[in-house]
Q: What sequence folds into this?
């Protein structure tokens, strides 16, 4: 556990060195959030209420989505976990020598990255949204803590998915294709481009149960206090997120053992 | 000796009359031929990972199709946006994404300029006898980007068939010309925003807010963003000439915000002007470039 904490701290520190990139990231996420929000405001100006969502709900969800980009890396169209490149180049061999589990090591490092991203990139982006638009902010400590728990579970799911994409490299040699599909389709089915409430109900309800929705739609609905979450409230949403986190991390552990038994390290 | 020399640099011989003209043409075409050669090299490299290439093309295509779905959903709820119906909205979307898609295919790689500066590969480009801009733009050229251009053009075709427009040869020619201008404007924006990386390393993502952000902005009739934004994307960053003004031209519609009607015919002039700006910015950036020494 101490090892993991040290790796977590290093991950956090490593990302704190890219200051210009962080500022650039806040700018980009805010611009995209603003464009997206203005399109949705135009839609809601024509129809003030769509499937229980109003303009404020939709704009809040847009900025929750932009805030969580850096936490879940849901829009990565190229490998956003160094592990993927290390599998391709063979450097993974030295990772496997360490006396800690591969997944635990990378999880700790990625959570460090996510923590830095949330505080210095995600929250400023959300604040830009609060300043420019009418955005819901969590009222009270209870709601804030529940939302924070939801963000943490989103970070776990975001990592677990990207870990699985990286593991594809053991079988496919080059996992970039999988990443491209993730980065282009993931944000849409997560409710980032449009809230899932705007989708045709059958499609929307189905997408809501998938892990991608757990990274945008579910956290947003928890923040908004919507009652169409699974189980009718925030706890149901957290349970769904927790379930996916457990399933995906479990799959990661299992596939790691399969992959490492299969991998042949050729010295040199 | 003279013979060898001629073989190494063909077309460089100082001929008379006809030869001089040929020399001028060769010189003018040189960057395009260089680009073609480098791009083909990268196509062959990409073909070495066929599964990845197929998956990436599929991903890009699916990405465009989901965005089309989003446009249809948005118009389905709103009915009309800024007076545009769903097919007119798709026309705007397709004009924007085909222009950005084509520009991305040919010039999108310039956004990796910072990477070349950081790793020192830009130094290697400077000593080769090919324009560094051509080398940076052709770098990692990939046919997967057709996965975006082709569906965008298909959607454009579908939209054009379904909108209420009286076609004439003149209008078709104007549409083609405005689309070409759109591609040039997008490419110029790509180059200009990449040049920031000559001065601020690691600012790649800020450039994205102009390039991909510009695409996101122009995918919808921009009148919905309000007058101030429309004015700034007309007179400051001329994104309005990528999809909005061409759409007004094709649909023969008065500007909903009451901006001058002649604007829709100025696309080509704006494109030429912006490309000149891009060339100037690139040269300035290049002169300020200092190797990282790695």
A:
């Amino acid at each position: 556990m101490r090892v993991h904490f040290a790796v977590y701290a290093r991950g956090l520190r490593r990302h704190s060195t890219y200051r210009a990139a962080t500022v650039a990231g806040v700018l980009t996420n805010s611009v995209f959030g603003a464009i997206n929000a203005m399109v949705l405001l135009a839609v809601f100006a024509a129809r003030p209420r769509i499937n229980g969502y109003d303009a404020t709900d939709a704009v809040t969800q847009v900025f929750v989505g932009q805030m969580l980009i850096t936490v879940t890396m849901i829009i990565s169209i190229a490998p956003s976990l160094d592990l993927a490149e290390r599998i391709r180049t063979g450097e993974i061999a030295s990772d496997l020598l360490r006396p800690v589990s591969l997944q635990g090591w990378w999880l700790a490092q990625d959570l460090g990255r996510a923590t830095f991203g949330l505080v210095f990139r995600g929250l400023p982006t959300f604040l830009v949204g609060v300043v420019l638009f009418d955005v819901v902010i969590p009222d009270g400590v209870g709601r804030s803590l529940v939302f924070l728990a939801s963000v943490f579970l989103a970070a776990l799911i975001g990592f677990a998915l990207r870990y699985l994409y990286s593991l594809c490299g053991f079988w496919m040699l080059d996992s970039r294709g999988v990443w491209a599909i993730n980065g282009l389709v993931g944000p849409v089915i997560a409710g980032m481009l449009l809230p899932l409430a705007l989708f045709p109900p059958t499609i929307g309800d189905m997408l809501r149960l998938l892990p991608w929705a757990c990274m945008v739609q579910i956290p947003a609905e928890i923040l908004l206090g919507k009652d169409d979450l699974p189980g009718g409230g925030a706890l149901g949403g957290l349970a769904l997120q927790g379930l996916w986190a457990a399933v995906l991390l479990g799959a990661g552990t299992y596939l790691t053992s399969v992959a490492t038994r299969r991998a042949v390290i050729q010295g040199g | 000796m003279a013979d060898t020399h001629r073989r190494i640099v063909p077309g460089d011989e100082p001929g008379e009359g006809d030869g001089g003209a040929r020399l001028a043409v060769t010189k003018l075409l040189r960057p395009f031929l260089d680009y073609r050669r480098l791009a083909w090299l990268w196509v062959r490299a990409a073909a070495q990972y066929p599964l990845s290439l197929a998956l990436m093309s599929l991903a890009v295509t699916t990405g465009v199709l989901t965005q089309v779905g989003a446009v249809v959903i948005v118009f389905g709820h709103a009915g009309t946006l800024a007076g545009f119906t769903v097919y007119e909205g798709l026309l705007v979307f397709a004009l924007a994404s085909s222009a950005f898609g084509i520009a991305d295919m040919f010039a999108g790689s310039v956004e990796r300029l910072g990477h070349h500066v950081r790793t020192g590969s830009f130094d290697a480009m400077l000593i080769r006898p090919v324009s560094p801009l051509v080398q940076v733009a052709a770098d990692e050229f990939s046919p997967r980007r057709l996965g975006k251009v082709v569906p965008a053009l298909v959607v454009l075709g579908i939209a054009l068939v379904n909108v209420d427009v009286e076609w004439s040869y003149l209008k078709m020619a104007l549409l083609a010309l405005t689309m070409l201008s759109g591609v040039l404007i997008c490419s110029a924006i790509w180059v200009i925003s990449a040049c920031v990386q000559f001065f601020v390393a690691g600012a790649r993502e800020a450039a994205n807010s102009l390039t991909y952000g510009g695409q996101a902005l122009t995918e919808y009739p921009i009148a919905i963003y309000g007058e101030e934004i429309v004015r700034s994307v007309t007179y400051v960053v001329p994104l309005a000439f990528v999809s909005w003004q061409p759409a007004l031209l094709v649909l023969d519609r008065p500007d909903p915000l009451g901006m001058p009607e002649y604007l829709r015919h100025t696309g080509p002039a704006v494109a030429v002007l912006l490309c000149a700006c891009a060339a100037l910015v690139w040269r300035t950036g290049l002169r300020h470039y200092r190797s990282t020494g790695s």
